[in-house]
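Last lecture ended with a question: if I hand you only a sequence, what can you say about the shape of the protein? Today we answer it with a concrete record. The protein is Angiotensin-converting enzyme. Below, first the input exactly as provided, then the predicted structure, then a couple of comments.
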Amino acid sequence: MRELYPFLLLLVAVRCQNETANEEAEKFLEEKNEPYNMAMNAMMIKRWAYITDVRPETEQDMIVANGEFQAHQMGVFTEIEEKFNDLSNISPNIIRELKFLKIIGNGALEGEDQDQINSILATMESTYGTAKICPYSGSPDPAEGCEATMNLDDISLRMTESTDYHELIYMWKQWRAVAGKPIKDHYTEFVNLSNKAAVAQGFNDTGKLWNEYYLYHEYSEDMFKEEIGRLWDEIKPLYEQLYTYVRRVLNDKLYDDEMLLFAPMPAHIFGNMWAQSWVNIADYVMFFGNVSSVDATPGMIEKGWTVDDLFLTSQEFFVDLGFDNMTATFWEKSLFERPEDREVQCHASAEDFYSKDDFRIKMCTYVNHEDFITVHHEMGHIAYFMEYENQRYIFRNGANPGFHEAIGDCIALAVSTPAHLRGLGLIEDEENKIPFPLIKGLPQLPEDVTHQEMNYLLRMALDKIPFLPFAVAMDKWRWKVFDGSINPTEYNGEWWRLVEELQGLLSPTEPQPDDFDPGAKYHIPANVEYIRYFVSFILQFQFYDEMCSASHHTGHLFRCDFNGNLEAGTKLRTMMQKGMSQPWNEALQDMIGNGTMSAASLLKYFAPLHKYLEEINEANDERCIGWECDYEDIAREYMAGTYESEMNDKCSSAGKADWNYNTDINSDNEQLSIEASLEFSAYEKHTWDNFITEFDYENFKNETLKRQFKLKSVLGVAALDKIKLEALNKVQSNLKNIYSTGKICPYNEKECDLITSGIPLEGEPGETSIEDILESSQNYDELAYVWEAWRDATGKKMFDYFVSYVSLSNDAAQANGLENYGDLWMMPYDMADEFKNQIEKILNQTMPLYEKIHAYARKKLLEKYTGKFAAKDLIPASLFGNMWAQSWEALYPIVAPYPELPGLDVTDNMVANNWTVEKMFEVSENFYVNLTLEEMPTTYNTSLSMIVKPPNKEVTCHASAWEFCKEEDYRIKMCTGVNMQDLITVHHEMGHIQYFQQYRHASQPYAFREGANPGFHEAVGDLMALSVQTPGHLKKIGLLEEDFTEDERSDLNFLMLTALSKIVFLPFAYVMDRWRWDIFAGQVEQEQWNKHWWDLRATYQGIMPPVLRTNQDLDAGAKYHTAANVEYSRYFVAHILQFQLHKSLCEIAGQFDENDPNKPLYRCDIDGNAEAGEKIRRLLAAGSSIPWPNLLESIIGERELNASAILLYFKPLSDWLDEQLTDDDIGWDPSRVDDWFLPNKLGSDDTVAIIVGSVIAALVLLTLVGYFVGRSRAEKKVKRENEMREAQDYAENNDAYLSDGNNASL
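The predicted structure:
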């Protein structure tokens, strides 16, 4: 036994030593407690003075107090280091207390470093607390000289009220400019000093120091971060469902024109400066109407609640759970409302002054539901302070930082329930209310959840769930900042990378490296770690779940209100009294029976909502749940699948209905055509609204897919709402119907019966037509009569419809984000104003030749119509053998350079050789086949196409080619006559058919089945005609005698005839669209429309009306393309492009050499040249899949339109005209337009009344439409203003499926 004595003595000695070490440590801690509390109290008094009265003086006092407190901390830190460097004989609890006493934050700095960090923190907080912005003035930037009067409270309130996308951007951006950006350099300095302090305390960086409060034995920082990630992963599916639902509703209801459905959402639209809570948009995304909102605000206001009532009610709730009343000091010294006489930091906070009963709240409180909840939250902090007041200084805190935040929020979950608010009389009962859905297509509610409850859950989720990823982003970012993973130039970029990764949100403005957007959140300049709030949001539901169990709640968790339940209150108080004196996992274990954080209670609370959101999103066929989707793949799948199939089906149906109407004009077919067109337009709009415009296609990697979206990003008239679209379709139908059914009485029977004796513009073979009279009559007065009568039968009758057409068309343009309809027409050319300038430039280059032709024609017409007009006059428009003076071929007999030579019109030979209409189409098809292009068998199959005018039917004779989208069905509609002019037109229309077939057989998708631009489609047939009309080719097909001599004289005759079609057309084509551009742009008053038409015709064409006109006439309406809403620049482009292509192909075919006089360009015939045919095939097969400048360059080596080829073609004629004319012969005076117009009034009072009545009726209709339609669509993606519209715009005017001939003659 004696041998054990030494061992026992050693044991006793060790025990005594341990007891002595513990006693010494205990004594030390007890001795330091009261001085620590006093030092903390002194600092808190100065801090309180500053945050409740932000001035330089109070700021300086706070800085001094902070320094003094940090000096005290440092003193205790040093003592611990000296006295307790060996902790082996001290108990774990005391070691834990000593460890946390040694975490003194910035107090570990000394001297200048401490002064500097305190100064930096004060400056950053002061910058944040005093930041103000100028009120929004409608501009993206502050108004010049404005006064910054809006503080954060003002801004926050306005953000809850406004749904003006651009105002919200302004406030969001300006707040960051005044609160975030100015502190970036300060924050960079702060990070360095803060890390220096952390290292002095034994940590690698400040982030690790912060996270120490969440660690315990065998629970490392890596494990803590992994747990945060695990918890977020558990909650993320709920957030994704909520996110998807909110994105859809905001897109549909508020920001259709600004935000994208298939992209992350912008961060500024949630009614909250940081998008940490979305509750302020609840009213816009709520499920059901006529349901009492679980919002206490109206009830509190109705009952006359004051701010004090909010705090008294909160105190009562805590007292009923067994807590003590707030202290007298609390009520005396707290700040509940913003004072008017000084600046304060309004961010709500609870403050522990570490002095007996001194606990305070600072809050700029308003009587509203949000602050009702916040008050309970802050009083939760106060209750926690009071419960652990008797703990020593270091343990006067939550078990971890998240515990403190969770307590009040746990209480708030109970007090925000409908049952609790109803008990306070703050919300209504739901009896006798019939809810209705506010969102389309909502699924059936679960039987055990009411409409009010589902609304309530949604509101709660909007407040709670978006906060979680925001909280993670806040500190994930700072962990990277503190550990040096990112440098200051990367601060802002990394912030937005994390925000997008975690929240799925994008900056509404382009983030800049020198911005400092995280600094616009209080906790960054105030240096408050934020992961505590994430932890608190997890714990609050775990606490709530446990307290509900303690109060014996049954049923859905979200209904639980443990108000007045002492058992639940005792559970909570017991945990709170321990403060931080035990590791948080043990505190949690004691409270809920499990020491692990879990999202299960949160998910249990929101389970009914989660399921309901899943059902809604499934019903909406959401293709992207959340934001981490391959949007490009979704777009690719949609375009190749649903879009391709549906667009082809709808296009085909509408096209056939429109074909039926144009080939048999009657009211039944008209109605069917309108209905089919509306159905097609509605589907186009649906795809445009819900898919095409909802992708950020500009960032697609696949260039082909990007181009499909670019071409379809401008919809056209289908962007109109249904009522306006129907109105526009009807107006356009009326315009076309007036044109198509127009007839005039014969010259010698001016008061005829139009049904039996009326003359149409184009007639059947053997039937007199207006065109025949214009071409054959030599009677000046008859020509003038016919010219005027056609305008009376068409344009004049269209005027009122045209007024509506202009207004509605401009509405359509604006629905596409463009200023006017002329801008919409320019979209397919990809250049807008630049393209207009290019047209004018080309026109100016060709005008000298036109002026020569004009002068020579005028000379010859003066000889024919002596005394009808003067030598320098403009030429009467009725004398050209063409209704619109766009083609002067009928003048050829009098202007041919060598009239004695045989004519080049082979019509007589066609008749003599028994040519039929069918043969004309066969010969044309052979021309294409000889170029190794495709046969076109359906084109002249009369069971499909209409190639002659049918008897006893009204039809639209204007030549056009049709594609029906879905099948191998291509048709031509044409009232063909056996004559040379129609032979050329047949070749032109079959060029369209060849285009249709080539890009379809190249497997181009629907979006690319158009010309590279609208002019390309028109140019192809004209290109063929340049070969077909040559004497050489006409000989080849047996229509010109073999002995016809091609020499200089015949060449000049041929060039003159061709120029009468090609050159004189250019100024007319320009005038057609220049007039409409000006009308659409509102540059011409309505009563001056017709005068402006003649101003342009006089200026550019040198022609005048043969009879007096009025401004109640609409002479532009006498042209089909005006009535049919067909932009005309395509024909101008085609007339230039055809010569560029012709020149290139003729060089390839070896038929043109600029240096060989025997191979002039005008004699070239590419018939049968396979190499040229292959170039054409490549051009056509590409459709619109390649930007037209790129495609043109790949075919002919040129990227721009230019007049060099057409001028080269006609150079011999130009030189010959120079010899025939003097300078005095050329030119005209366009200034006498006023002389051609009667006074600006109508012919009779009755007519005035009728027109005025029509205008008023139209205005009333538009007003009613505006009233019922409501808010018009705002501009759609202004940044896309320069994007390309699809080549042909017939989809915008009922002729969606056809391509017109070159001009009316053709």
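Comments.
1. Confidence is low (pLDDT under 50) at residues 8-14, 1241-1306.
2. The CA atoms of residues 814 and 976 lie 40 Å apart.
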